[in-house]
Known about the structure:
Chain A folds into 2 domains: 133 residues, 2-Layer Sandwich (Nucleotidyltransferase, domain 5), CATH 3.30.420.40; 171 residues, 2-Layer Sandwich (Nucleotidyltransferase, domain 5). In chain A, strand 2 and strand 3 form a beta hairpin. The model of chain A has no long low-confidence stretch (mean pLDDT 92). In chain A, the strands form 3 sheets. Chain A has a 5-stranded mixed β-sheet with strand order 3-2-1-4-7. Chain A has a 5-stranded mixed β-sheet with strand order 10-9-8-11-12, sandwiched between helices. In chain A, strands 5-6 form a two-stranded antiparallel sheet. Chain A is α/β, with parallel strands linked by helices. Chain A contains 9 helices and 12 strands. At the A-B interface, strand 9 and helix 7 of A face strand 9 and helix 7 of B.
Amino acid sequence: xxxxxxIACIGIDLGGTNLRxxxxxxxxxxxxxxVTRAAELEAESIxxxxxxxxxxxxxxxxxxxxxxxxxxLGVAGKIDPSNGMVVFxxxxxxxxxxxxxxxxxKTLRLPVYMENDANVFCxxxxxxxxxxxxxxxxxxxxxTGTGGCLFLNGKLWEGDRLGFSxxxxxxxxxxxxxxxxxxxxxxxxxxASARALVTGARRALRxxxxxxxxxxxxxxxxxxxxxxxxxxxxxxxxxALELFxxxxxxxxxxxxxxxxxxxxxRAVIGGGVGGxxxxxxxxxxxxxxxxxxxxxxxxxxxxxxRLGDDAALIGAARxxxxxxxxxxWVNG
Amino acid sequence: xxxxxxIACIGIDLGGTNLRxxxxxxxxxxxxxxVTRAAELEAESIxxxxxxxxxxxxxxxxxxxxxxxxxxLGVAGKIDPSNGMVVFxxxxxxxxxxxxxxxxxKTLRLPVYMENDANVFCxxxxxxxxxxxxxxxxxxxxxTGTGGCLFLNGKLWEGDRLGFSxxxxxxxxxxxxxxxxxxxxxxxxxxASARALVTGARRALRxxxxxxxxxxxxxxxxxxxxxxxxxxxxxxxxxALELFxxxxxxxxxxxxxxxxxxxxxRAVIGGGVGGxxxxxxxxxxxxxxxxxxxxxxxxxxxxxxRLGDDAALIGAARxxxxxxxxxxWVNG
Lengths: 332, 332
């Protein structure tokens, strides 16, 4: 039998700061990658940059005898996968209403499939990461905001296709709590995201005594960020530690509610702020045990994402591979 | 073509007070029914009563040329459908650890299938009630406690088969809120159930001024119940109205969280306390709209159950019909 032709897909992760693309093998291995700065670009320039990086990757594959058959594109925010449209992108507002997927498909002459960034994270961790082999699980991506997704019966859950699903970050954990950019109060995202750490630190600074501590110094130096707050906490600052405790509490409560409702017990947590795992996991697990009375002694299984930033790239490529096989094309 | 033989199933609803059984046609019509008091009976007597009522129904069917092919049994609490065992029944504790389904099957020489009472409610409303034709929806049963279930992709969702699923009543809506019999605090059930109305009224009676009002009179007369609190509210008593407002708030918040996470927008609410619909629906809908930022202007669709008490009977019979067709038998 002849060797089957080697094929690959491009996976794209379009974040608020960078545009990352990779050529990914059928088995989920990253063969080559490109990164470009996306912040401050206009929509047309994002398309041009993206198309150029993708062509690079197609050529890089071709030089090794690999055919690129499709691309998958993960974008933060509300998207319409059926027509390749970015409906609402909080991190890249220049893309609001821009048919990025459709235009990229036309430019590249390759099928391009779009999904929410948290969904492509899930697809990646499910295909080649911490959730491999899991049938039912909750994915949470702790970044600037809080992304989420559900895998049910071995598939990414899409709900009623209302344009959103798996919005774990907008489950209310503290009614009347801190405001969330979505307009509600006390969402998980208002406790468990890079943005929540910074706004939480600023709230804490109003308390006498804390203003004079390390968080106050960072704020005065204009250096307050999720990363510097994490470092403060690692050095034992109680005010910073409290923010991660609260993050774990909020995550534990949201997961307790999901596990009670869905009768499941697995979650995978990734994203940049997921790297603060050691600072929030105890609080998360204690809260979960206290608030999910249904789970027996075997309890919940909470794991870290295993692919880091590559989860979204591998997941986006996997999306491309699956949809292409199903013979779907973006309309247009 | 010959007329196909007429067949029917028995549906049984085993509540804390009464044992109700009905002969149900293939199309979900109740053909005949029996009711017996279950409170204060021992486990063996419950089995004997149940078997006698079922035999009545089988004979009643036979007299009309109808063959009874199976029975479905809905029980409040945690059950193990695979071996017909009641694991834990808060309303009929004499049944804890009793293999009621298996013994009934042996006695009747008919396949008997068991499910949680909220799940059979869902099956009933889905087959012949308010949720007919709905693919994805949340069911909530407001009774002594708060039952719940999920229908996903047109099927009763069973999760990881951990012995519970759809425990909407134990989603936390107010962290640190009133205690729930499950051991957690601030569960939906602690706001939206007959028990919550009574304990909520007792809490309210500690407030000066309220003790002297109609709720205080009921308490002193030993007549405080969900029903009398409802009547107080219908007569405009602010303290009683406040309890139903809070019920609606808690239901709205739990549904907002489920809709955000699942990307769905339909719920059906039934059960005895669901009859107080007019007193909680405004608060429910306002809370939902404020706390589910993802749902567009088309919004959520919340409906009342349409089958009343018959939902559980029709659903239990439907369970019997479906499992029998699938060729399953309870082990034993």
